[in-house]
Structures are given as C-alpha cells and as structure tokens.
Write a structure and sequence with these properties.
Number of helices: 21
Distance between the termini: 139 Å
Largest sheet: 5 strands, antiparallel
Mean pLDDT: 79
Radius of gyration: 34 Å
Low-confidence stretches: 28-44, 546-593
Length: about 600
C-alpha cells in the first residue's frame, strides 16, 4: 500500500507540474495582453495639443500675470485702474471674434492680440481664460472637419446659453444654470463631432459655463457704466451742434469726471472752451490739449488741430502752421478708427435711427476725419484770409477736398461745405459752381447698384474729375445724406460731353454706413459733389420722382457706357441754393464766430 500511495503521489506531482507548466505561459501571455491593452488604451487617451496651442500657452500665462501686476501697480499709484471705453471695446471684440472666426486656429491670433493697458482686469482676462479651456478639448490628431465641428458646437452653445442669461436693473444678472446645462448638451448632440470629441467637450462643460456667466456679469457691469458715460458725451455733442458752448462744457466735464482717460469729451471740452469769451477759458483749453498730446490715450490729429487754432488766435502764426501741417499728416491714420470693425460706434447702430443720433455720429466722424472746424486745410485757409491772401486760401480749400479724395473718406462732405459758407466767406458761385453740370443715375440690372452719368454743359473742359454721390434713403431725416464715391476718376470731360462714371453697390455702402442694407427703391433724393482741378461743384438734390426707374427688361440696356440724351435737364439748379436748404442740417459743432 505505501508503495501504491508513493506512486500516486509522484503521479499527482508530475500532473501538477505539467498543469503549472501549461498555465504559467498562458497566464503570463494573458497578463502581457492585458497590460498591452491597457497601455494602448492609455496611449489613445493622451492628447497632443495642436502647434498653435502649444506655441502660445506660455504667452497666455504671462499675459494673465501681467494683468494682475498692472492692476496692482495702477491701484498703488492711485491711477485709474481702467478706461471704460477701452473696456467696452475689449468686450465688444470678444463678440466680434466669436462671430467672425471659423475655427479655434483662426480665433487664437485674436486671443494673443495685446489689449490696452486700460482695459479692466476682469474683462481683459476673459479671452485668456477661454483659451485655457478650449486648449483642453483640441487634439493635434483631429482633422480639419473635426476641429471645425468642435468649434461650431462650442460657439453655438455659447450663443444659445446667452438666451438664459438675463439682466434686471434691480436684481442684476440672473441665470438658470440647469437650463444652460441642457442647452449645452443639446448643442453637443446636434454637432457632427466624434464621440471622443464630445466626451472632451463634456469634461469642460462646467468650466466653460463659468466663463460664459462671468462674461455676462462682466458685460452687464461695464455696459451700465459705459451707457452712462455715452449719455453725458452724447449731450455734449448735441449741445455743440446747437452752438450751446456752456452746455458743452457742463456735459463734457461730467463725462470726463466719470472717465478721466476717455478721448472724445476732452476734445469737445477744449473746443467749447476755445469758443468761450472768458479770459480763463482759453488757457484751460490749452492745458487740456497739452494733456491730450502728452498722454497715450490722446487723439493726436484733433489735438494738434486744436493747438494750432489756439496758436493762431494768440498770434503765433509759425506754430499754428506747423501744428496744422502735423494734424494733416496724422489724420489719415486717425480716421482708420472710424472703419475699424471694433469701433464702438458700430455697437451703437441705434443712433442711425434718429435725427439726433445721426448728429452725434456725424459729429464724431467729423472730429476723426478732419471735417469742418477740424480740417487743417480750412483752418489754414482761415489764417490766410486774415492775411488777405485770398488765392492761397482758395488753394487750401481745394487741398482739403483733394485730401478727402486721397483718404477715400466722404462722410462729412456737407459739413465741409457748411463750414466754408459760414466761416471762410467762400463765393459759392465761383469755387462751388455746380449749375453747369448735369447728373443722372439709374439702376444696374440685378446687382442693387447705382450707375452714375454726368454731362458738362459749361464752355470749359474739366480735368481730374471725381464724383461723389450724396443719396438720402428711406428712414433718413431731411438734409441727411450718405456720401460715397462712384466709379474711377475721369481724366478729362470736355464741354458738351457726357460720361458714365461707373457704378457702386448700394447695399454695401448702406450696410457699412447705416448698419442696414438699402436698395435702389429706397432712394428718396440724390445730389452730388464733383472734385476737379478747376472746381468743387455741388449738384443740388433731385427728388425721387425725377429718378429714372429700373428697366422692365434686361435687353433694354445694352451697356453702361452709352451717352444719354437730354440728361438731367431738370437738375440745373444754382449751387448757392444749398445754403438755405440742404446744408442747414449738415455739420455739428463748427466754428461760427
């Protein structure tokens, strides 16, 4: 028996060793496979951010640190921590960037644009915080369609979430976070992004919602303050239009007290003080102008213009001439702010819906483009007229309009005419003779464009002619016009000849200048300004009933260059008549002394 037991034990041992020998490799293989699978899975979850993220992470971190340091330094030095105009622009720029960019790669350069040092810290941080969130959801391995889908999902969610954010003047910002979560999830479900991308988006959901609500709070906080500043500044503009300089001083001073670093009210205040008869007001105006030129937030071109006017009235002709020349040199750069897509007047499109609002917009544009009182050439002409140098003064008036042509800015051309009539004693029948020029406009088929033709009924040839159409559209008040060039300059227009200058899209012009797209049928009346080597001519407005209607069939018009018979026969009005009608509504705040 012991012998059998011993044999059985040996047999069991051999069997166990055999089984262990089989199981061990199998188990090892299984373990290796499990570890490999886990490693591969882990490897797939590790993301590599795109190059445009990696290359800018350090810069974003540095900017956030700089904002805090700058705010602390300004507070310690008891300087204004922020400028409300610059802050409103920074918040507005976020809206514009999100609406115009198509991908995160297009958005990133905007994030890296250096904001003004005077933007409020909490507003300045928002775009960098947004960068730090969206960098978490991007992967260098994603193709362009994937990243575009992720961007669309994010921006659509942002726009949708804004619908559950409200502002109450008493309670302030209110929002429904649970509803915001549902909107976010709904946006994700509709996107074409992959499951992995949606998973990444869900991971940053709470962080993204925090930024959105912080943006809403910040925007509401500063919008209220900015609206209050605008109300004071608008009052100053309207008072300047009425020639109530005491009220300009009061309103502009209130605006400056609310925002010591703003720009426009400082210029309005200095202008008003220069119109005052008090002995102490001119030195006060001079101090304001000196401050504008010294500080980085100053408007250099208008400030040099104002300093030149002060020097002229103090009898310092040499300094006045230098300042006017410098203002003329700087105005092309200054006026770029008008067409800047982030110009804050684009945020205030409601101003175009009232006569008073248009006065404010036109006055602002006049300051920024060097029109009327703020024209260096007109101020030089005024100086030359005091010296009885009439021919040179006339040349300076021509120089102004040629500068306008070079800049391509015509918004305030009627303000220019009014200033010339009121302050330069210009002989309109001489220099502004438009009674020998005949104008006709008609629509371009299918393109919402206007085609302009002009005939020279004078006995002299006209050289280097540029035509500026001045059109009044529906919803615009009497005397207000949208002014824009049509076609290319014409080298020569001989006596008796007619030329089709060219065409211009009405929709493009009105969308830029009025914020709404108008059509041919919306034209109520039109006139024109002609700039040439021999004359600056105003062709008085024609009423809608005198405007040629669109052709019934395209074949009725075979080209745009043919001459017209009996062109504009009803439009031969005297140019001087504009002084009593059209120009009565143009201009704002010009010198009336």
């Amino acid at each position: 028996m012991p012998e059998k037991a011993e044999k059985r034990t040996k047999s069991d041992t051999l069997k166990n060793l055999f089984l262990f020998g089989c199981v061990l490799p199998f188990g090892t293989l299984t373990l290796i496979l499990a570890v490999s699978a886990a490693w591969l899975l882990l490897k797939k979850e590790v993301k590599a951010p795109p190059d445009y993220i990696k290359s800018n992470e350090a810069a974003v971190s540095k900017r956030l640190e700089e904002i805090d340091e700058r705010a602390a330094a300004r507070k310690k030095a008891e300087k204004p921590v922020y400028d409300i105009d610059q802050t409103a622009m920074a918040l507005f720029s976020i809206e514009k960037a999100l609406s115009e960019a198509k991908t995160f790669e297009q958005l990133t350069p905007f994030i890296l644009q250096k904001e003004s040092d005077l933007v409020a810290p909490d507003a300045a941080k928002l775009k960098y915080r947004f960068f730090n969130v969206y960098k978490k959801i991007l992967d260098a391995k994603d193709d362009s369609d994937e990243t575009e889908s992720i961007y669309d999902a994010t921006t659509n969610a942002i726009k949708s979430v804004s619908s559950v954010v409200g502002y109450n003047p008493v309670k302030g910002i209110s929002f429904d976070r649970e509803q915001a979560r549902k909107i976010w999830e709904e946006s994700l479900s509709k996107t074409k992004a992959s499951a992995k991308a949606k998973k990444r988006l869900r991971k940053v959901q709470d962080e993204m919602l925090d930024i959105l609500f912080d943006y809403a709070r910040t925007n509401a906080k500063y919008a209220k303050e900015w609206d209050a500043l605008c109300a004071k500044r608008d009052r100053a503009y309207l008072a300047a239009y009425e020639g109530d300089w005491d009220e300009v001083v009061s309103a502009a001073s209130a605006a400056i007290e609310a925002s010591p670093t703003e720009k426009e009210a400082h210029i309005l205040l200095a202008t008003a003080l220069m119109h005052s008869s008090k002995e102490t007001d001119r030195p006060a105006a001079e101090a304001i102008v000196k401050s504008l030129l010294k500080t980085s937030h100053g408007q250099l071109a208008p400030a040099y213009l104002l300093r030149g006017v002060i020097a002229m009235e103090n009898g310092n002709v040499t300094q006045a001439v230098v300042d006017f020349d410098q203002a003329a040199a700087y105005y092309p750069k200054q006026q770029e702010e008008i067409s800047d897509k982030l110009n804050l007047y684009k945020k205030r499109l409601f101003l175009n819906k009232s006569k008073e609002g248009r006065i404010i917009v036109n006055a602002y544009r006049g300051i920024m483009s060097g029109a009327g009182f703020f024209s260096p050439d007109f101020q030089m002409a005024k100086l030359l007229l005091k010296q009885e140098k009439t021919a040179k003064a006339k040349r300076k008036i021509f120089d102004h309009f040629f500068r306008r042509r070079g800049q391509g800015r015509w918004d305030q051309v009627l303000m220019d005419f009014r200033f010339c009539g009121n302050n330069l004693k210009t002989d309109f029948k001489d220099i502004f003779a438009g009674d020998k020029m005949c104008l006709e406009i008609e629509p371009a088929w299918f393109t919402n464009s206007v085609i302009v033709s002009i005939k020279n009924d004078s006995s002299k040839p006209i050289h280097n002619l540029t035509l500026l159409l001045c059109a009044r559209f529906t919803d615009m008040f009497i005397g207000d016009y949208v002014s824009f060039p049509v076609g290319e300059s014409v080298a020569i227009l001989n006596p008796g000849d007619t030329v089709t200058v060219g065409r211009r899209n009405i929709g493009d012009v009105t969308l830029e200048k009025l914020g709404v797209e108008k059509k041919w049928k919306d034209i109520i009346e039109y006139g024109a300004v002609i700039i040439s080597d021999e004359m600056i001519a105003w062709i008085s407005p024609a009423k809608r009933g005198e405007i040629k209607q669109p052709p019934k069939h395209a074949e009725e018009r075979n080209g745009v260059g043919e001459e017209k018979e009996n062109i504009g026969s009803t439009l031969k009005e005297k140019a001087s008549e504009i002084l009593d009608s059209t120009l009565k509504a143009a201009g704002a705040g010009e010198d009336t002394r």
